[in-house]
Design goal:
Elements: H1 10-13, H2 31-39, H3 50-64, H4 68-78, H5 96-109
Helix pairs in contact: 3-4
Length: about 110
């Protein structure tokens, strides 16, 4: 244990201190909810909300200025990232379970 060298205390010794329900939903104490709230506001002297201004600037940067990173960001959110295909066969096509079992057996022989 890093911070508790004596091994005493913590939730194991004090289960009454566990917050089993967690933080209340919609408590507004996180960065995402604060950011979403701000993006809904319309700045003084403007006709559009911050979120609309943000999207306009992002699109301009990607499409007019040709910024590749902005373009990739838009594509990732619109279409999503391409799916990764994971080959579950290891070593010359043998099934994963068989291969893992053999590797474990070899490890235990040492």
């Amino acid at each position: 244990m890093k911070g508790n060298k004596g091994g005493k205390g913590g939730f194991g010794d004090n289960p009454q201190n566990i917050n089993r329900k967690g933080r209340p939903t919609g408590s507004g104490l996180n960065l995402t909810s604060l950011l979403k709230e701000r993006l809904e506001k319309i700045p003084d002297g403007k006709k559009k909300a911050y979120k609309e201004i943000f999207i306009d600037k992002l699109l301009h940067k990607a499409l007019v200025e040709g910024d590749i990173q902005s373009f990739k960001l838009i594509m990732n959110y619109v279409d999503g990232l391409p799916k990764s295909i994971v080959d579950m066969n290891l070593f010359d096509g043998r099934e994963t379970q068989e291969t893992v079992s053999k590797l474990i057996d070899k490890w235990n022989e040492k």
